[in-house]
Amino acid sequence: MMRRMRRLRKPGLRRIVAETRVSTDDLIMPLFVDGRLKTPVAIESMPGQSRHSIESLAREVEELEELGVPGVILFGLPEEKDEVGSGAYDPQGVVQRAAERIKETTSKVVVIADLCLCEYTSHGHCGLIKNQLVSNDETLPLLGKAAVSQARAGADVVAPSGMMDQMVAAIRAALDDEGFTDTPILSYAAKYASSFYGPFREAAQSGYAFGDRSGYQMDPANALEALWEVRLDIEEGADMIMVKPAMPYLDVVRMVKDEFGMPTAAYQVSGEYSMIMAAAERGWIDGEKAMGEALTSIKRAGADMILTYYAKEFARKELEG
Ligand code: PBG
């Protein structure tokens, strides 16, 4: 008897035996909202993506809701930045106003607020700076304040992305103190110091003035360390955990999923998105197929949810069939 693996690779059967299928239900759309804008502005480094005004953001979320996208994550660009990142925890900050506005016209889409200081600090780092270094412990109360203001504005989930030690514990305590005991935390638990964030830093205008983020984000060389990071965040109260970026770290996604079995997110970051879009624009690859393959690989590695700039396009194509 010869086992002929190709017997199951005919179109109809192939579909039936597929182990992994990405669905719109798995996807979360990242969106940028800029407090200075009246109309949306295209982001050159991320084809198909825009920085939104609060009004255009609300319309975009309505469209995503109609397309069946289950969640969005909001990144804010404040009117002004300062040394201490006030815009992140201002009750009238851009993300807070955006969350409030979205909730006026949509009810199904889950609104996740990215929670970090880097878009709001003049130096662009994710925490307060003391002697040219990020002061972890002095940053924690500010993250707590930011979380409370976001939850109060209507955010359904807060997602700390700054890789401060003990950030989840500080945020959980602050939320609980103010009565937001049911607001879940999606922690960017294993976030690597990655060059794949390049286009995002242009999109969010959050480049840093000096140094880099390798003092608090993870070394790409380490995978076991990611398990520590995730374990600590779970112990501190994270409800969902994230690995970021996604495709260069699929081994980490798999390890994290196997070890903890928690709701696991993976973030297909700006660089991953833009590489595919740029190559597709040049006709070097089939963008839609490459994107489908990338998302399938991320899900196959164990991700329950994928943050991807392709979520809207994917949903549109899924509806078209
Ligand atoms: C920072 C943050 C970053 C991203 C999400 N949150 C950038 C960074 O750490 O430099 C990157 C997302 C992307 O590249 O798509 N709070």
UniProtKB/TrEMBL annotation:
CDD domains: ALAD_PBGS
Catalytic function, reaction form: 2 5-aminolevulinate = porphobilinogen + 2 H2O + H(+)
GO molecular function, one term: porphobilinogen synthase activity
Record pathway: Porphyrin-containing compound metabolism; protoporphyrin-IX biosynthesis; coproporphyrinogen-III from 5-aminolevulinate: step 1/4
Enzyme Commission number(s) from the entry: 4.2.1.24
SUPFAM superfamilies from the UniProt entry: Aldolase
This protein's UniProt keywords: Heme biosynthesis, Lyase, Porphyrin biosynthesis
Similarity remark: Belongs to the ALAD family.
Protein name: Delta-aminolevulinic acid dehydratase
GN (gene name): hemB
